[in-house]
Amino acid sequence: xxxxxxxFRPDDxxxxxxxxxxGVDEPTYVxxxxxxxxxxxxxxxxxxxxxxxxxxxxxxxxxxxxxxxWTPSGYVLDAHPVAGLDMDDPRQFALKAxxxxxxxxxxxxxxxxVELDAAGRAVVAVHYDKAIAPSASYLDYGVEDAxxxxxxxxxxxxxxxxxxxxxxxxxxxxxTGLDWDLLGVVLDHQNKDMILFEGRIGGFFxxxxxxxxxxxxxxxxxxxxxxxxxxxxxRSPDGLHWxxxxxxxxxxxxxxxxxxxxxxxxxxxxxxxxWLMIYHGVExxxxxxxxxxxxxxxxxxxxxxxLRQEDTVPLLEANPALTADIAHQLYLPTPVVFTTxxxxxxxxxxxxxxxxxxxxxxTHIPKERFR
Length: 371
Fold this sequence. Notes:
CATH superfamily: Glycosyl hydrolase domain, family 43
Keywords: Glycosidase, Glycosyltransferase, Hydrolase, Transferase
Low-confidence stretches: none
Protein name: Glycosidase
GO molecular function: glycosyltransferase activity; hydrolase activity, acting on glycosyl bonds
Strand content: over 45%
Distance between the termini: 26 Å
Mean pLDDT: 95
Shape: globular
CATH class: Mainly Beta
Largest sheet: 5 strands, antiparallel
Family: Belongs to the glycosyl hydrolase 130 family.
Number of domains: 1
Helix content: under 10%
Order of helices and strands: EEEEEEEEEEEEEEEEEEEEEEEEEEE
Number of helices: 0
């Protein structure tokens, strides 16, 4: 096996064991099994917390488009008149003539724990009995994009909660990596990429964040930065109550091709040189954009100090050869790789990513690459 491969694909998901069977009787399929949280389990094996985006096989019936929603009594299908929708994006639809923009999803996401061997080269077990599905009103349209960090023997997992109430970040915690407790909302604003540092700084938890908004302001022409979504920092005394740092974090720079927006990828890990992190940058193209992975090094005592930011030569790019045998399942118009975690493997890092919003990719990267 090479050092860059797909480890888990949509067809690897057994939908007969999906939590959506509690209420959705109509045919569904896996739109994507991707963007996995990533950590090493106490037994030495690796954990992929895979985002399974499960969609209706026939989302449009007659003149109605339907979205899946969780309720305390089971899953239901909400109908929206097609005449009032824009449906250009296969992942979602937008209600016309609404400001602010209102969206519906063509799938509902839940999390599937997939256990790999210690080297990340084979699937050992798929833990359907440990799957994480919506269980609160702020998650009723899905649980998306887990990021896992191990701190002092405890696993912390952030997720993006999707609902009509709010687009928030929720926190789970575990002592085993497989049995998780939902701790509730930790960021009450739209924030896609909250990731905890793998260790405390000055006694505090620290995290990358990426708040989103409707409006951004321009930097002056002579600034090296571009306005738009960027990576911020926050700290907490307990992992639950977070204060943003006053200093800016990583920002999109004019010299990078992927500067439409940037956001966190892997959990920052401490090295002799500082906090190593992998993040994503997006180049504007079509509806979705081209996603690539880059890396940066932050000061070990003050992570707002950026020691190095490698944003011109990508660390990872989408690799069409990896998805050649499942190309018939591709639905995005542009190349996407979305890194979501890394673990230390001695002389290398094992990096987990979502490939094409479709499957889980594993890449082994020698540590020399980050020097």
